[in-house]
Amino acid sequence: MSGQEFLVKGKIVDAATGNPIEAATVYAETIKDSTLVTYTITNADGFFALEGKTAYKRLRLAFSSNGYQSVAQEVELKPEVNLSVIKLEERVEQLAGIDVIGERVPITIKKDTLEFNADSFKVRPDATVEDVLKKLPGVEVDSDGKITVNGKEVNQVLVNGQVFFSTDPKVATKTLSKDVISKIQITNTKTKEQEFVGEEGDGETKTINLTLKEDKNKGYMGRLSGGYGTDDRYQANGLLNYFNDTQRISILGSSNNINNPGFSFDEIYEMVGNSRGRGFSFNNNGGFAIGNLSFGFGQGITTSSTLGASYADQDKGKYKTDGNYFYAYSDSYNNEKTSRENILPDGSYFTDTESSFVGSTISNQGSANLEFDVDKTTRITIQPSLSVNNTSSTDSDNTVSTDEDGNLINSSTSLQTTDGFQRTFSNRLEIMKKLDTLGSYARVYFDNNNRVNDSESFLNAQRSIFGDNPSEQVQDQQTTIDNANDSYELGASYRHALNKDLYLDFRYSYNNNEQSNERSVSDFDEVTGDYVFNSSLSSDFNFNVDKHVPEVGFGSNGKKFRFNLRARIEQIGLDNEDFIQSTTFSKDYSNLLFNSYANYDIGNGKRFSAHYNTNLNVPSVNQLQPVPNVSNPLNIIVGNPNLGPEITHNLYLNYNNYNWKDRTGIFLYSGMTFEKDKIVSSTTTDENFIRTTNYQNVAGNYRGWAGISYSKQIKKDSLYTLKFTINPYANISRQVGFTNGSRLEAKTLNLNPRIGLMFNYKEMIELEPEYRLGINATRYNLDNVANIDYITHNLAFKLTTFWPENLVWGNDITYSYNGNLGAGFDKDAIFWNMSLGLQMFKKKATLKVLAFDLLNQNINSQRTTGQDFIQDYQGTVLKRYFMGSLTIKFDSFGGKGAPEKGGGPRFIRF
Fold first, then answer.
1. What CATH number was assigned to the domain covering residues 1-102?
2. What pLDDT, on the 0 to 100 scale, is given for residue 462?
3. pTM, whole model, 2 decimals?
């Protein structure tokens, strides 16, 4: 059968009043098996136009709106069908020629919530939640697992309204099977106050709530996976979820040496060592993070073992609790090289560095969220968090500096070992009270954050200076650091509702932040064989900040137009004392700052928003301490006690529009940040290219950006789905600093267009090509500095086949090119991961063979530019290995509400 295009028009009204119903859902499904064909929603006047292409001659059309009885009728398809007026009743009532149906609506709009029926979107049987999200209109999931809805980022994913391990969206979307999900609800992310009083969020970020099916809400769901490969690469991990109505208990564990936390169960591409950045976020030496929990160090290769547990429960109107605990151990190593051009007012010099890093960390981290509703108007929230980390590392560096003619000027070698201990405890106690039904409320809170950061390091370094006056300097130093930071904040706020829309806000907060920084440096004495205290390089520094912030605001929570205007005065008292250097200084600041936003709901999926805010940042302890830090013999750092605070002005503009009829979405965004009295580095380089870095306040720094996100979805029955996205993006910046007394400005323009495509044919084959272009242009204000221009290309192609049945073949290929890297740096590579999986025992087990970096070309090379430098970098990466693995699923559910036989809506023929 050849497909035919069709158009069905009509209007949906309230049967009792005749008023049009906005945002009612109209969808078409096959009569034979209730497969979703297409859908749309009505506009503000109740009109709809349902377009599609299908091989079927007749379809069932269904009409639904929140609060009304859904109805359906069969339609003989023609190029154009006019149904005139469809009336929806608030109660079940038989209408002439129309059949009453049950609730099986693919999409429902409820005030500020967009709700999708997970079963209405066809995916393969073993799909994860992330696979379903990729099918939803207006939802984008990039190669890093980042989710956006109509251009707005999703910053948390909940399960049955509760946190799942952490608010990191990828924890739930990559571990939960689609089969257990009933509804996918998308709302604007709300603050605790907005959630408590029933106010809408500001719409800048989104929250996804996954509702479990009733028959899947009692029982357990487990996953086990293990693999071993060449070069002794291995991975093993497991996850067990227990559900009992509102209660959830989860346990997970992982161990591997392929840079993967191992909590994702994508049986095709995951467990292959951070392919294209998929999975969780990674730091510089191979460390990783789950939400706000960080493990390990940064770039390189990491061997890690992790064990975690999570608990959640709630009784609506009484309490809501969730908590988690993680233990992690990791070993990391990284070899890297950098080539850096350092810009001076009268020329440049060059620094080449080869370094090696080895480190280990043991982490214990736990947190909880406890909410208690004393009555319908009062809520108490307690949010404790504790982390304890022990670290050990060894760093070695070999650096040489040359002039523009290639003459050797200086060199240094260093070996540093460090053992560290960090402990952080924080807690928030908050009490909120509703005062009336209009939205008035009062809130008081107390926050504390107590941190300890201790370390002991040994540095052995040698600095050599060549030329007419050669010299050598040897360092053998012991440094102990005892840092403590205790911060306490007490605040209160009161909202007075003037009517159901307008309100006044009054807020006050007091914050005290006390930091003690004891840095003891000792030099090795060859005569005595002991380390001798060096007072000129040591410090015992107390840093105290008192902040008083009164604030007043005025706003509206109108249905179409929402705004908030706030003004605050930040009064800051800063006191500092160094007991070793016998220096003290005090400063007082008082600044008037503003925050505001406005959201306008134009209608029919269109929304415009504008935000403006100002922020004040005080200098850090390291920026203020006037004590030399000589841990890098070629770059000595000294603080400036005369620094003032920096103030940033931020402006954001957003416009988004999703057309349900055409399945097209467009999101326009732009922003600008101006930095007043920005704290910047000021370097002085002597004739031997030894740098001394200081800090000072400067005006003239700014950043600006603008971008467009456009998406289009095309679907034909269950035959194929085509979705493409176009994302042009640009940013500009000016960085101001000082070198050898001269003002140095670097103006940078970046252009980063992206185009992506997803094509799925009968859930048998899926194609995902993507291309990214990076154009960088940097201009300096000094005549002797050449312009910097470079271009990067990234072409990715993902091919997955699910045919023949039970056989899954995956290919993930990325080509990267950066032709402007210097000599000795890899400029391009093809990174290809391939896997072949066999699903067995009714898809309860998957046997897989995978090849990571099949062509053995994986690289980590990049170029960066700054206000006074151009730098090329290359670090250690995982190279080619092959691995065999087995993944086993074990689920057991016995809840109420088993699905009805036959599925689909009730359909009564006449």
1. 2.60.40.10
2. 95
3. 0.84
